[in-house]
TIGR01777 family oxidoreductase (Asticcacaulis aquaticus), 476 residues
Amino acid sequence: MTTLLWLMTIQGVMGAFDTLYHHEFTERLPWKPQAGRELFIHGLRNLFYGLIFASLGGLSWGGVWAGVFAALLIAEIGLTLWDFVVEDQSRHLPPSERITHTLLAINYGLVLAFLAPELMRWETLPSGFHPHDYGLGSWIMYLFAAGVWGWAGFDLLRSRRFRKLTAVPSLHLDTPNQRVLITGGTGLIGSRLTQGLIDDGHQVTILTRDKAQAAKFRGPLTVIDHIDDLRAPVDLIINLAGESLSGGLWTRRRIARFYDSRLGITGALIDWIARQPVKPKRLINASAIGIYGRSETEIFDEASAPAAPDLATDLCTKWETLALTAQNHGVPVSLIRFGLVLSVDGGALAQMLFPFEFGIGGRLGSGRQWISWIHIDDAVGMVVHAANAGLDGTVNATAPVPVRNAGFTRALGRAMHRPVVLPLPGFVLKRLLGQMADILLLNGQQVLPARATHSGYRFRYPQIDAALNALFRGRM
């Protein structure tokens, strides 16, 4: 192959890596409403790229058409610059994606440098399109052309995914105009709570390390990055801060962050409460159903005792024990033990979407492990219900009908209109993910929301099919 085709091959490989690893797997752009414009640009740019690959593989643009091809190359640069601007406006790019984009830009510059003499040669040809053949090099270009054209159509269709979304259900605290402090207010559950409570007319303050994320909220909001910056009294504290358990491999450093991110901020909140002359009326503290341990046969509710210690039970037990010390200062505490929160915006479900969207999803391990799940709207609703109903102590935030993993994946396939044909063996997951696979994926428990049900909470989505269909309605 010529040097030009080698450079285009490198461009194609790096572009495929950027698309699959960053756009699809880690950043999950097709599932983020704010990424609609970026997906449209990607689709349009890939149409151009496909034409460039196909032409370099087997077609010379002669005469005046050489100028048209040059204009095409310049237009691709314009689309790339537009893409850079939109990306910086809509999301925070990880370092690996910025490096990849830089390498793509450098390599594309080399492509243009080596292509310039070829364009000058094309200009001397009679006007029209002239076939040429570089053997294997041509077929590699055709392969890349087919790939980027196919992905162009995919991205253009998915850029329309969020244009007709249903409104987010409103939240309502029975006591009006409350002063609410939310930690983890830019996270999965916190974001929905923050916006809902702002819309309900409350004075909301969020404690967050990422102030830039707070720009996404509509309405009056106070943002602080340290609890000591909070001077005014608070009526309600909702503590959701904590490193996500499903965000990556459980290295020693990440496990340490699981503890530090939860116990550190909770300890700081307790110290702040102790110093206040006017105490909050309630602390609502997040926890997780992992505290019950794992079983295929036992059914757990709030009266069940914590299981023998493993990482999940130890983490939850220490977190809850620390939060309960707020009672020593006269502040009632609600402990919300969340199950698997279903949302396409983040959490464990979001990590599953990549294989399922391409029709290669399936059950995990035996498929017999229980999944105690809850739709994001009910997860948020449960927090508000605990405040309104004055539920002290533990409250399970799970739907009333748990499902086994095999049933869950079949329901996910139905909601996404995709086959469920490729099971992932347990030993593979353990090899890839280690302790995370054993605790989060391959073992589960049936956890029932007894206190929420008995205190009158009405689930919006008690059944898995209705919950998943609501999440994917208009998006597939």
Notes: Residues 95-124 form the longest helix (30 residues).
